Write the structure tokens for this entry.
Amino acid sequence: LVAKEQKPLLDSVKEPTAEEIADYYSTNRTRFVSPDMVRFKQIVLLTTGLQPADEAKARAKAEEIHRSIQAGTPFDKFQEIFLDGSTTRIGGLNFDVWRRDDEKKRVTYGRGFFDAIFDAKTGQVTGVLQSNAGFHIVEIIERIPFTVLGLDDKIPPQNAATVRDQITALLRQTRRMEVVKQATDALTRKLRGEAEIRVEQSLLTW
């Protein structure tokens, strides 16, 4: 109803100007930073819920895979991993990007494993690492250092939008929300002014 009745007001929302975008960036510059990040692929064997004997088998399997990689087997060969004699998949290959300021991952996987990821060098294949989730063999693809982003810098790791794009969208949304509130208030006043209010005394229970 608001969109229908207040269309001219809603259509009046203007795009943020270059000056407004630059002013917002200048005032909020410290919000637009890229923390230390690391992009990596890993072979992971999950041990959550496994019995001690099967966890020991998972460690032995991870060490066997690591030896195989050192001997020249491609890292990407290990798409799916099963314990010997079992048809239950306990892991495989996946890709991820971690941020240094991600406290949730630090707690979930354990500080030792988290720090080992960020201490590894680009191109390095780690030994078998243990986390709270299981055993990992990690290959570092890219390290992205901490930086303060400029207006036209792309925002990692997706790199799909620039800081300017993000600020433009934020200002546009904020401005539209303000206009929607104005339109809703105006329509509410209009409807109240046109309404006939009648109290049905017979329906009241007190």
Residues 163-194 form the longest helix (32 residues).
